Structures are given as structure tokens and as C-alpha cells.
Amino acid sequence: MLPIETSLAAVAAQVNDTLGRLLPEPSGAERRVLDAMRYATMGGGKRIRPFLVMSSARLFNVAEASALRVAAAIEMLHSYSLVHDDLPAMDDSDLRRGLPSAHKQFDEATAILAGDALQALAFEVLAHEATHGDPAVRVALVSELAKAAGAHGMVGGQMLDLLAETQTDLSIGAITRLQRLKTGALISYSCAAGAILGKAADSLRVALAAYAHDLGLAFQIVDDLLDVEGSAEELGKATNKDTAAGKATFVSILGRERARAQASLLAQQASAHLEPFGAAAGLLRQATRFVVERRA
Amino acid sequence: MLPIETSLAAVAAQVNDTLGRLLPEPSGAERRVLDAMRYATMGGGKRIRPFLVMSSARLFNVAEASALRVAAAIEMLHSYSLVHDDLPAMDDSDLRRGLPSAHKQFDEATAILAGDALQALAFEVLAHEATHGDPAVRVALVSELAKAAGAHGMVGGQMLDLLAETQTDLSIGAITRLQRLKTGALISYSCAAGAILGKAADSLRVALAAYAHDLGLAFQIVDDLLDVEGSAEELGKATNKDTAAGKATFVSILGRERARAQASLLAQQASAHLEPFGAAAGLLRQATRFVVERRA
């Protein structure tokens, strides 16, 4: 089996190509917002969510072109959330993926609008007949993404995260729920999308959902660790923000050692949920190790 | 035929009731964003877009419950756009529908998130099977709303509008395109939604689209007139903002008299496009007069 870095890079190249074709070509008087949409989406990133979509879709023999469109839609949605989260009124981050955040490169109004348009475009891509021949599949993709992205998903998680900035006494349970919404919902959707595209049996959907749940949490714990241990150069964004703000995180509550042990345990658990898929789930198993061992 | 104010009020009551059921009940730690979503959506407004959905749907004998869900989804989308447009980085408006705008009532971060979640919820509502039994209809509703709301629709129009603030020499053609995107796209969608729900023949869709096109433009010209002629009390928002900013509008270029004449002409044209529907289009014909004669 190839090293996961190779597989990740291959998916990233494919999804970047797909994004380049799906994002509107900047032209006309409104080109500023189209430029900002490209800037926010094409600036790199590990493309972990697309990797999860592609690897899950492969379990059910989904056509690659279908899965790539869904992967691109998720990346648009994810990019919009980063653009809005970076705004001065939210996390106030000037740096993203090693480059100025969208509102620094353009301006706040353009960044807000680019995020809004990226969200709309994600749904447009999913709903397009090129994504899947069966409208029932397309509408299921839309419905599940809307839930994952909304007030009881990603946006709700970001609300909790902002409120948490003034709370130093959050419990592990509260932080877990916050992260399950903020980053977990979209990670779970990325895996579920493969199953929806492949019209998978319920038992396999459940197994994949359990995998995604544990993987998402491990991912977030490692994010918290990297915020403490990593450097801004490696991460391409400011570090130690949470510690500086005195904010409760997995690491501030558990300590670094227990947090790392917890992440490893969750990654093993995630792998174990893949048992029904046998050897076919090799890429998803690799992903669990990568999530825990990554340095950025 | 009842006066249009009566029909509008009846639709407003129905759609408010539907919105109240579809918006998530505020609870849990993230209730702040749920409160803001309700605040932004339930604060009144004429509900002209829902009126257009309901009146168009009636032409094709669409079940009222279906049309009401679509009307509510459009109003969520419209409300999100008002919340984001009112932000300090955008139009910086403290007043909306006679009440503090969402970011004044809550805060900027909550307003951004509430807008984001309202957009997601609009798509969730459209994609839900309660909206229509045929997934092909639901996915068409999603697809067309995504286009109307995105970078080549409403968001693109708002980008043009922000750029126009520093341009006093816009042509009538440029202003027309700006408004066709900013407000026209969602008004057109409101009419198209009735035809999608009713699986209308192409010729009737085209007639309805032509009606919506002219109605949308008339609506915007009157908006510009009211900005000059109306009072803040009547309108529930600040007036004379465009004049104060030296911004090019239909009124600044055409003058009040020619602008009013143009709006009337467009309204008559809009009515004429309804000919294929005969007497059944009475409500849509009334709407053209209302749009031109309204005082707020």
C-alpha cells in the first residue's frame, strides 16, 4: 500500500482540478467576489474531507466523477466556514494556510459574500444531475449536508466555540459536543456521502458513521495538541490562541499526555468499526493513523 | 376580488405559522444562534416573495402545504441576506423592519452565524420529502434556489451594490443588471418555484419568468423612490441613504417622474405576460399594482 501522503496528494490534485472547473470563472463587474471564492477554496489545505469522500465512495464502487463533485462541494462548504470563522467579529485570524485570510486579502464585505456564495454553490453542485443520475440520491446529499452545516451542526458548533471563549470551566462532555458539531458534523458527512452515493445498506452506513464519529474526535484532539505544540510556520495559522485566551480545550483539561493517549484510542476504535469492509477499507484505516500522527 | 392587502396578510399569517414550525426551537447551549434565526425571520415584513410563491403555485393546483414550505424557505433565504447586508462591513444598517438589526440585537458574530444557518435551513426545508413527493421536483427547487442565491444571483448583486457605492457614473444598464441580480433573482425564483412544484409546461414557465422579470424591476425602482420619498417610520429602515452617499440609482439617473412612469410601464408589461393564465392569475395581476402603489 502506498504511503497515505501519496494517496492524499493524489486526491488533493483531483479535487483541486474539479474545484477549478466548478468555481465560476472570474469575469464581469462582480468578479471581485468570484476572485475571493477561488482564493478561499484553491489555497491548499490537506483535503482530508475529500479524501474521506473518495475512500468511502470506493467501498461502494461509486463512479469517481460523482464522488469528486461531492468532494469539491464539501470543500467549498468547509472553505466558506473558514472564511467566516476568520472574520474579525469571529476568531479574528489574519493567517490561513500560510496566506492572508480572505478578509485581509480582499475586505470584510467581500469575504462575507464569498463565503455566502460558496455555501450556495456547494448545494448547486450537489443538486446538479452530473453528480448522480438518481434525483433521490442528489436530494439526500443536499439534505444531509444542510443538516451537517446548519444550526444543529457546524454553525451551532461555531456558536458554542465563540461562547466557550468566556468559559474556562467547560466539562469534557461540553467540549466533546462542541467539537462533534463544529468539525465532526462535516467529517461525518464526508463519510456518509460515499454511502449515499453508493446506496449502501443501513448496517454499512452505521459502521461508517461510527468510524467517522471517532475519527472526527481524534482529529480535533490532535488539532488542540498542535495548537500547543506546533509552530505557526508548520500550521500556516496562528498557534497558542486557545491557551492565550485561557479557553478550555481537550488539552487544557486532560493534559497533553492523556489527550494524546485519548486520540490514539479513538483512532484504534475508528479502525475497528471498519471491520465489515475488510481489506477494502485500507485507505480509511490509514487515515486514522495519519490523523493522529500528523504534524500540521 | 379581495383587496390585495387582505390577501397579503392572509399569506403572511400562513407563512409566519409555517416558519414558526420549521425554525428550530431555541434550546441547548447554542440557543443564542437559534434565537437570532427566529428574530431575523419572524420580525414581520410584507412577505411579498411568499405571496408570489403561493399565487404562482395556485395556477398549477399545487398542494398548499407544499407551496407554504417553499415560501418559508425563500423567506429564510431572504432574511439571511438582510441580516448579512445590514452588517457594519456591508450596508451598516442599525434598523430593520422598525427594530434593531440582528447584529445590534445580538452581536456581529451571532448575526453572521444566524445568516449562515438560515441559508442552510432553506435548502434543508426544500430537500425534505414533506415539500414534494417527487425527489426530482425537490432537487430542481434546490438547484434553482442555489443559482438565484449565489455569485451569479443575489450575492453577485450585493457585491455589485457595494462596488457601486463608489461609482456615481453607473449606466442604467449597469444598475438594471445589479438589481436584476440583487433582488430580481429571488423574486424570479419565487414565481418559478410555483411552476416547478406544479410541473408546468415550458411555455407557461417562460410567461411566468417574463412576468417576474418585469415585476422585480418595477419593485426595485419603487424601492429607490421610497428611499427618497418615504419616511423612516413608514419604512422601518433608514431612508435617503443612497442620496446621502451620492450613489447612482434609477431615481438619481431618471429623476422621480420618469422613474415612476417606468415602474408603471413595467407593471403593465408584467401583467400582460400573464395573459396565457386568464382570470386565474388575478392575484399576480393585483401584485403588480401593489408593487407600484405601495408606500412602504
Describe this structure in words.
The structure is a homodimer. Chain A has about 300 residues and is mainly alpha-helical. Helix content of chain A is about 70%, strand content about 0%. Chain A is built from 15 helices and two strands. The first copy, chain A, has helices at about 5-20, 30-40, 50-60, 65-85, 100-105, 110-125, 135-150, 155-165, 170-195, 200-230, 230-235, 240-245, 250-255, 255-270, 280-295, and strands at about 95, 100. A two-stranded antiparallel ribbon of chain A has the order 1-2. In chain A, β1 and β2 form a beta hairpin. Chain A is globular, with a radius of gyration of 18 Å. The first copy, chain A, starts with a helix and ends with a helix. Chains A and B meet through α2, α6, α7, α8 and α9 of A and α2, α6, α7, α8 and α9 of B.
CATH class of chain A: Mainly Alpha
Count all strands of chain A and give the number.
Answer: 2
Give unreliable regions of chain A as ranges: none
Oligomer: homodimer
Query: Can you say what the CATH homologous superfamily of chain A is?
Result: Farnesyl Diphosphate Synthase
What percent of residues of chain A adopt helix (DSSP H or I)? Answer: over 70%
Biggest sheet statistics of chain A: 2 strands, antiparallel
How many domains make up the 3D coordinates of chain A? 1
CATH topology of chain A: Farnesyl Diphosphate Synthase
The overall pLDDT average of chain A reads 93
Contiguous helical run count of chain A: 15
Shape of chain A: globular
- Strand share of the residues of chain A? under 5%
What is the CA-atom radius of gyration of chain A, in angstroms?
A: 18 Å
Name the chain pair whose interface involves the most residues: A-B, 56 and 56 residues
Q: Helices and strands of chain A, in N-to-C order?
A: HHHHEEHHHHHHHHHHH
